[in-house]
Design brief:
198 residues, 7 helices
Length: 198
């Protein structure tokens, strides 16, 4: 206690060079130890996915066929006819959709506009793509978009809901997104029932 009272009030209690070097060495040692531990863990860690699950993953890539084009442009005709011609030129819908596939279509349904205003994808085109997916044996077809305007009105007013759905949807379920917009998913089942679900 006598040593504490012997200090003058104006003395600074800063670190000496020796104490500063020791602290730097300690911090450097901890950083080096953390780096070594990270390298060791990365070499000795493995993904917690069983090997069978890895093998069960399906490759969704389309086999490259030199006889078929990568892109087609079709012009002059009704939307349904254009879709059929495009798929025929690409090798048919079955090249892209297999039996029991879940297909997600993302047409432009962003705007609260009528088909005559041509702000969204043509509803007859969407309906034909949905029909082709069913013919290829799809288990489910999902039509979705993140609308800029109110989603329920966009799906309805664009004509896509009426054209692509065999019957009127039974229910609508909004999906809140991070940007406070709503994502609406039209789900079409084989029985003709549909709903907007998340």
């Amino acid at each position: 206690m006598a040593g504490e009272t012997d200090r003058k009030p104006d003395e600074t209690t800063g670190l000496t060079r020796r104490e500063a070097m020791l602290q730097l060495l300690r911090v450097g040692g901890v950083a080096a130890g953390a780096a070594v531990a990270g390298v060791w863990l990365s070499e000795h860690s493995f993904r917690p996915i069983p090997a069978k699950a890895e093998e069960a993953r399906r490759d969704h890539r389309i086999a490259d066929d030199s006889a078929l084009p990568h892109l087609v442009v079709v012009k002059g005709g009704e939307p349904r006819e254009l879709v059929q011609r495009a798929f025929d030129d690409l090798g048919g819908i079955r090249r892209f959709v297999s039996r029991q596939d879940v297909v997600v279509l993302k047409p432009n349904i962003a705007w609260d506009r009528t088909p005559e205003q041509a702000a969204n994808t043509n509803p007859d085109l969407v309906a034909e793509v949905v029909r082709q997916c069913w013919q290829a044996g799809a288990k489910r077809v999902i039509v979705t978009d993140v609308s800029c305007n109110e989603p329920r009105r966009c799906f309805h007013r664009s004509g896509i809901q009426a054209a692509a759905v065999p019957r009127v949807p039974r229910s609508f379920c909004p999906i809140p997104s991070y940007s406070a917009r709503l994502i609406w998913v039209a789900w079409y089942s084989r029985a003709g029932r549909s709903s907007l679900r998340f």
